[in-house]
Amino acid sequence: MHHAGSTYTWFQPGNTTRPDRGTPGGSSSTCTEGTCDTGDYVAAVNQVGYCGYTNWRVPTANELQSLADYGNANGPAIDTDVFPNTQPGPYWAASLSADQTGGTAWTVNFSNGAMVTRPTGMPAHIRLVTH
Question: Mind spelling out the 3-state secondary structure of the chain?
Answer without folding.
Answer: CCCCCCCEECECCCCCCCCCCECCCCCCCCCCCCCCEHHHHHHHHHHHCHHHCCCEECCCHHHHHCCCCCCCCCCCCCCCCCCCCCCCCEEEEEEECCCCCCCEEEEEECCCCEEEEEECCCCEECCCEEC
